Task: inverse folding
């Protein structure tokens, strides 16, 4: 059994639609909470407690603002299709579950944004987030994260490319079409990173012949 976590793009779109309906267009932009924040995990400047524990209420809508905002133009980012991303993440989770490991798996596009994340029912935590961090490594270095971990230790120039939101450990592989890396799939939560990577590869193998 698995539980499906809705692709982050859908959740963010719903949130931003609500925010646009309540806030003027000139409001400050959303920002990451820290350098270790995952791609897309940005916070609005209202509706939350700040670092001093102060709550900032949502801004008032300007007079005459329509209750329904205008449709937003879709963002086009290279990556596996939504259907294939879900299928790959599910295959990774199911592969590990068949051997008694209850993991999380995440598929990201070329911007590092999650296309799909799935957490196994029976897992002991939100492993999908660590899976994204591993996938960011495979995306940045264009090789499996297991090989990246070895390379970073031996090469200081590669170490300089590691960002605070990455988790440099086995468990993720790039998604490649021809010679182009279009994303990555990561897995986390098994007995070790090597088993995570086995499951991530199984997820990739499930869809690789249909990638475009």
Result:
């Amino acid at each position: 059994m698995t539980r499906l976590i809705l692709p982050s793009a859908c959740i963010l779109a719903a949130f931003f639609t609500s925010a646009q309906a309540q806030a003027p267009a000139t409001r400050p932009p959303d920002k990451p909470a820290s350098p270790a924040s995952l791609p897309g995990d940005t916070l609005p400047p209202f509706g939350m407690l700040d670092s001093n524990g102060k709550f900032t209420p949502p801004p008032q809508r300007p007079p005459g603002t329509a209750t329904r905002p205008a449709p937003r133009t879709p963002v086009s980012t290279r990556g596996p299709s939504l259907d294939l991303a879900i299928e790959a993440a599910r295959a990774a989770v199911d592969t590990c579950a068949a051997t008694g490991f209850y993991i999380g798996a995440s598929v990201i596009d070329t911007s590092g944004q999650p296309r799909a994340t799935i957490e196994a029912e029976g897992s002991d935590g939100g492993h999908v987030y660590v899976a994204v961090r591993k996938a960011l490594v495979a995306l940045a270095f264009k090789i499996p994260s297991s090989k990246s971990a070895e390379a970073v230790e031996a090469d200081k120039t590669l170490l300089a490319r590691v960002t605070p939101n990455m988790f440099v450990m086995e468990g993720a592989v790039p998604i490649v079409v021809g010679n182009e890396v279009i994303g990555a799939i990561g897995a986390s939560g098994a007995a070790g990173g090597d088993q995570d990577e086995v499951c991530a590869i199984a997820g990739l193998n499930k869809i690789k012949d249909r990638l475009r």
Q: What stands out?
A: The two ends are 30 Å apart (CA to CA). Residues 26 and 50 are 20 Å apart (CA to CA). Residues 6-24 have pLDDT under 50 and may be disordered.
